Amino acid sequence: MKQVALIAIYHHLIKCIIGIHHHERVKKQTLYVDIEVKADISACAEKDCITSAPVDYTALAKLACDLAHEKRYQLVETFAIDLVNALFDQFPIEWAKVVIKKPMAISSAKHAKIELERSKTI
After folding, report:
1. Which residues contact 51 (CB under 8 A, 6 or more apart)?
2. Of 105, 106, 85, 73, which is closest to residue 37 (Cα–Cα)?
3. What is the CATH number of the domain that holds 46?
4. β-strand 112-119 against 29-40: which pairing, if any?
5. For residues 55-68, average pLDDT
6. Which one, of 44, 53, 9, 34, lies nearest residue 98 by Cα?
7. pLDDT tens-digit readout, 73-112
8. Is it the case that residue 69 has pLDDT exceeding 70?
9. Which residue range is the domain that position 95 belongs to?
10. Among candidates 110, 111, 106, 88, which has minimal Cα distance to 98?
11. How many domains does the chain have?
12. Residues 79/68, Cβ–Cβ less than 8 Å
């Protein structure tokens, strides 16, 4: 029987170059990334084995870090879109949601935030 579960990591800290202003292009900033995906976990649950899991938390975290570090984005929006696309490309998921918070974006705010959610198209 198919068992679809929410698999997630929250408040994943990434230090990277991101932003459009000169000072943002020379000094790493902190981002907090939440990733939620839905996938069928029936095979790994039956075998109680991580190698059968559709998604590994560590792989989610690494994917987000690798993208942020390699691309050195100007816009958080572009990072969010690329991350969601990569999630669907690399994992057998049915749904994904990414939340990216940039604490130093506006001095008078706790953080700026973007949320992007997508379902698998059939």
Report:
1. 44
2. 85
3. 3.30.1130.10
4. unpaired
5. 95
6. 34
7. 999 999 999 999 999 999 999 999 999 999 988 888 898 9
8. yes
9. 4-119
10. 88
11. 1
12. yes
